[in-house]
Amino acid sequence: MNNMNAAFGAAKAGSAFDPIGYVMRPQVILRFICWLCSVIVFGCISAKGWYKEGKLDKCLYNKDNNACRLGSGLGLIGFLASIAFLVLEALFQNLSSIKIRRRVVAFDLGFSGVWSVLYLICFAYLGIAWAKSDYPPFGEGINSCRAAIAFSFFSIASWAGCTYFAHQRWVSGTDMTQFASGFENEDIGGGGAGYSAYGGATDEPTYQENPFTNMPPSDQMSNINYTAPTY
Length: 231
Prior knowledge:
Layout: H1 19-23, H2 26-48, E1 50-53, E2 56-59, H3 65-91, H4 98-131, H5 142-174, H6 189-192, H7 218-221
Antiparallel strand pairs: 1-2
Helix pairs in contact: 2-3, 2-5, 3-4, 4-5
């Protein structure tokens, strides 16, 4: 990419939107997987991850309410963030400002990296809590709790993939060699150490004769008669 409008791995600004190409982008496919996994994690825990014990709501994950809150929170924010990133991906190629593109890629890189780590923590937290849990009454919610654990694991891989592609974009955008103007002198003499000599120039310096050397001496100048001008 030799054009600033094509920085950070996107097409030139102002190009027509290609829906087929958009859907086939690896970033879009992974982002859709992140969206789907977030919906499943949030939905499973919110719908079947809680049960009533008297008047209190208890989490099926070893009665650890923090485990349910962690999974639900990550799923809800991941769901909203995935939608936002899908919209940004659709608009990204029409962002003509390099600064805005840089900020979008930096935010994508940071958020995706953090969320992949948080889902790793969530997967470990839910898995350990589930292993210590008692059998739920009538076995209700078992499949949902297991599905939340499984899709937390899938979320690690999908968010990590988004982090990888965001990093690739960041590297391509910060490589300043792609912004070269293309006006470099290809035929610089001496292996690029200087500029080519002006045509007709020689190594030996040339001097002009002093124009005052042929003038008469000062004592002879005084004998020259001048005619006064008439008015």
